[in-house]
Amino acid sequence: SSGINAEYGGASSICAKVCRDRCMSEWVFPEKGYDITESGCGYPSDPKTKKWLVDNIDKVFGFPQFVRFSWSTAEKIIDKHCVQVTWDDAEEDEENIPKINSFFKRVKKQTEIPRHRFYHEQGLSSLTEI
Fold first, then answer.
1. Which of 41, 67, 71, 65 is nearest to 53 (CA)?
2. 97: closest CA among 105, 85, 108?
3. What is the pLDDT of residue 67?
């Protein structure tokens, strides 16, 4: 049984990679001035991907919506290359001010994660919904 599950897992991984590559090759940024052609494969270990992230970061707003802000590679680049923001608020201690990245992380107890509008626009659905 575990062999069959491993085969399904391997097959689903290949399908996901092919779909991701196709989406990336056809991606049109709603934001102006970005080019995906030199972005590499999109994996954290890829030097071309890291270079693209550094080259395409806005010092104030971060990345275009194409990039997962919760991805640890993106988070590290934001911490290193973006303007640090300190909010003046008399009611909060500086120790309790959350980092901007904390707002983009998934909540583990959430039962249903809303899909990005890309999935709705493309008519995509989860394999469990088909």
1. 67
2. 85
3. 87
